[in-house]
Specification:
heterodimer, A: alpha+beta, 5-stranded mixed β-sheet, globular, B: mainly alpha, binds protoporphyrin IX containing FE, binds iron/sulfur cluster, metal ion binding (chain A), electron transfer activity (chain A), NO3_Rdtase_bsu (chain A)
């Protein structure tokens, strides 16, 4: 047993209203720079829908994640090390900018410089790649709220024989996505330079910017397409799990700002020695349970001893015992992993939404809160359940049904409590819970306060003042503006905060460019 | 060419070039580790790149191997191995011409793509343009010499350029040997030296990042936070699997 800690996230999808606040605050924090205009470390997709980048889940096309070779051993789906090396000069598996979307801004300048005329001037779209006028044809959430045809959704195509859902069968929910900070990250495995690594202290997967050489193998290796290529610096960038915040015990920006308060952060202990074997489970249906079996019980004295042996601080053990994420994933089995069949052992889990079921029941004129109605509907509604199974359990409907039945039990139990009725104990018992469990679930899902939702230990030694800020004077002559001697962004890297600072000052003092809310320079590339 | 000019070009310049090349690489690595990348433009355009880049690079790899064999291995070695003069030149012609043509076709397509694809052209710096001029000139002059050597059998560089080249590394550069070579050889050699001299200061440095160790490392890499700039912790990162 080799105990390793992982800071993991759970999102409760029933509560997501699709407001994109998480995406926008994340973008403002991490990707409001040239070169990553098209990049959303956090994006919110409407499901069913194509996702971002378009149809990223179609691994027959993109070949991300792992597969088993003839002998049942794990191998990156895009090929082993030698095969990838032969394809290093250009990769047909990398999405092009059109698969994400061509980033654009608006020609705000005309708004202030246009001569007086009868009609108000219009800020026409400009490509951020070329600066040329462009037509906006696609974006990161173009099919928001079923705004487009959902039939190209690869998961829907698997479960539904008729390609188009009839109106009565339509259902919809939002899926916020960040990097999964996988236990078996195929991005790390794909990086020929060894620039990507999983931090042994908290499991956060990061790119060493000084070691990345721009081979782009990680972009193709990640089945979730959560590594992005910065086209200005020629380096890979990815969600950092807001490590500077997590290190001091703060939640990630997306969690902190989530309007629905639906994100939970906490520590899970797992057995790193068994990861490879679990990820190589022969049947895809077993992958969810195989991953569950990796998680260790921090209250088990043997585990605690092994954790101390491995140097895990006491406060981390304590946090692991109080982990809300552990309750949702292990204790109540409410949360499920996204696409376990990619075999990367993802660590951002989701409580599947009951709302498609509630809506269907309510839409048919029945009481959508009534336990009996809901239980019946979970069994009867084939498409939503198998769709959710296609997302969260490699197609096995049982874990999804269990989670949904528990959510339904929670509803009807709490309704009885709120109406002053005696809750029927059989409702909880039927899905393997007690009334106590249900009330604890209710507390965590509906009431939990900040420090209950985010249990993040802070044992790192203090770093003192943030290093970055100290060297701001070294950067004269407008850092981050224009290109270095050897091309875009060569020379010493400009710390993000300094680049943003100068970007802000430039916008404030520039005569020619209008305000751009996302800190882009409004002039396109350059 | 007068004596001192020859000395300057074939005796002083090679050492200057090597010095700039070596020190340049060290300096660039220390100063600009962040800019040491392929600066890939695949995100902007992939259809042409998919053909052009592999054709260019694989052609170039063969060309480099050809240079190593042709310049470093003396003629009497290959003869001792039982390779006759005509066999050697035949294979040099075939391999050299195919590899050279691939390289040239590849770079032509790359330059065409660079010029005609909006975002790729926008991302092309003055430095890149200068590099392309020197690189293309080196390839063209090189192909010219291949044709001369092998097709017309006019001149055997293994009696002129190669001894001079090997002499450099034993500190006995033989300027007389290389001056005996016809002008295309001398031109190609001169451009080659220029290319080496600018190499550390262009995007070409990515060649020295070639990930040769990838096949030998575990798939999953764990690193401790302390190894990445943070203060030391008690834990050490275990080796991945
Ligand atoms: C084995 C070592 C090498 C590897 C692995 C390698 C790999 C690459 C890669 C991945 C790209 C980026 C292509 C893209 O996506 O845009 C590239 C571009 C390029 N490489 Fe190499 N390369 C190597 C050696 C060389 C050498 C020795 C030269 C020339 C002396 C060279 C010249 C170039 C040029 C000129 C480009 C720019 C192509 C363009 O976009 O116009 N490479 N290389
Ligand atoms: S989701 Fe994150 S950790 Fe997992 S493979 Fe993709 S980039 Fe790597
Ligand atoms: S901020 Fe919260 S509610 Fe809004 S889209 Fe993001 S996850 Fe959903």
């Amino acid at each position: 047993m080799r105990v390793m800690p992982q800071v993991a996230m759970v999102m409760n999808l029933d509560k997501c209203i699709g407001c994109h606040t998480c995406s926008v605050t994340c973008k403002q924090t991490w990707t409001n720079r040239p070169g990553v205009e098209y990049v959303w470390f956090n994006n919110v997709e409407t499901r069913p829908g194509q996702g971002y980048p378009r149809r990223y889940e179609d691994q027959r096309r993109w070949r991300g994640g792992w597969e088993l070779d003839a002998k049942g051993r794990l191998r990156p789906k895009a090929g082993g090390r030698l095969r990838r090396m032969l394809g290093i000069f250009a990769s047909p598996l990398m999405p092009s900018i059109q698969d994400y979307y061509e980033p654009w801004t608006y020609d705000y300048e005309t708004l202030t410089t246009a001569p007086l005329s009868e009609h108000s001037p219009v800020a026409a779209p400009r490509s951020l790649l070329t600066g040329e006028p462009t037509q906006v044809r696609w974006g990161a959430n173009w099919d928001d709220s079923l705004g487009g045809d959902p039939s190209p959704d690869p998961v829907l195509a698997e479960v539904s024989d008729q390609v188009r859902l009839s109106f009565e069968q339509a259902f919809m929910f939002f899926l916020p996505r960040i990097c999964e900070h996988c236990l078996n990250p195929s991005c790390v495995a794909s990086c020929p330079s060894g620039a990507l690594y999983k931090r042994s202290e908290d499991g956060i997967v990061l790119v060493d910017q000084d070691r990345c050489r721009g081979w782009r193998m990680c972009v193709t290796g990640c089945p979730y397409k959560k590594i992005y290529f910065n086209h200005k610096t020629g380096k890979a960038e990815k969600c950092t799990f807001c490590f500077p915040r997590v290190e001091v015990g703060l939640p990630t920006v997306c969690s902190e700002t989530c309007v629905g308060r639906l994100r939970y952060l906490g520590v899970l202990l797992y057995d790193a020695d068994r990861v490879a074997a679990a990820a190589a489970a022969p049947r895809e249906h077993d992958l969810y349970r195989a991953q569950l079996s990796l998680f260790l019980d921090p209250s088990d004295p043997e585990v605690a001893a092994a954790a101390r042996e491995a140097g895990i601080p006491e406060s981390w053990l304590e946090a692991a015992r109080r982990s809300p994420v552990r309750d949702l994933i292990v204790r109540w089995r409410l949360a499920l992993p996204l696409h376990p069949e990619y075999r990367t052992m993802p660590m951002v889990w989701y409580i599947p939404p009951l709302s498609p079921v509630v809506d269907a029941v309510a839409g048919s004129g029945h009481d959508g809160e009534h336990g009996g109605n809901l239980f019946g509907a979970i069994e009867a509604l084939r498409i939503p359940v198998s769709y959710l199974a296609g997302l969260f359990t490699a197609g096995d409907p049982e874990p999804v049904r269990l989670a949904l039945r528990r959510l339904a039990a929670l509803r009807s139990h709490m309704r009885a409590v709120n109406l002053g009725e005696e809750p029927d104990p059989s409702i909880a018992a039927e899905c393997g819970l007690t009334a106590g469990d249900i009330e604890a679930m209710y507390r965590l899902l509906a009431l939990a306060r900040y420090d209950e939702r985010y249990v993040i230990p802070t044992t790192y030694e203090a770093r003192g003042p943030v290093e970055e800020a100290g060297c701001s004077l070294d950067y004269d002559g407008g850092p981050g503006m224009g290109s270095g001697a050897f091309g875009e962004a060569s020379g010493r890297p400009v710390p993000v905060s300094i680049e943003s600072f100068h970007g802000l000052r430039r916008r404030q003092t520039s005569e020619t460019i209008g305000p751009d809310p996302l800190n882009w320079d409004g002039k396109g590339a350059g | 060419m007068s004596g001192w000019a020859e000395t300057a070009l074939w005796i002083v310049t090679p050492y200057l070039t090597l010095l700039i090349f070596a020190l340049g690489l060290v300096w660039r690595f220390r100063y600009d580790r962040f800019g040491w990348t392929t600066r890939s433009s695949q995100l902007y355009e992939h259809q042409l790149l998919r053909i052009a880049s592999p054709v260019f690079h694989f052609g170039l790899l063969f060309v480099i191997v050809g240079h190593v064999v042709g310049l470093l291995i003396p003629e009497h070695w290959t003869r001792a191995m039982g390779i006759t003069e005509s066999m050697y030149h035949m294979s040099a012609l075939v391999v050299g011409a195919i590899a050279g043509t691939c390289t040239l076709a590849g770079i032509a397509l790359l330059i065409y793509r660079r010029r005609t694809t909006g975002p790729v052209f926008m991302a092309t710096t003055a430095n890149d343009k200068a590099m392309y001029v020197v690189l293309t000139a080196a390839i063209l002059a090189g192909l010219l010499t291949t044709l001369l050597t092998s097709a017309f059998g006019e001149h055997d560089y293994r009696h002129t350029v190669s001894p001079w080249f090997r002499g450099i590394f034993v500190f006995q550069p033989d300027a007389a040997a290389i001056t005996a070579a016809p002008w295309p050889y001398r031109l190609h050699t001169a451009i080659g030296m220029l290319l080496l001299a600018i190499f550390p200061f262009t995007r070409l440095v990515h060649a020295f990042a070639a990930p040769l160790t990838y096949p030998f490392r575990p798939y999953i890499v764990y690193r401790s936070r302390s190894a990445t700039g943070g203060p030391p912790l008690t834990r050490r990162a275990p080796r991945g699997w």
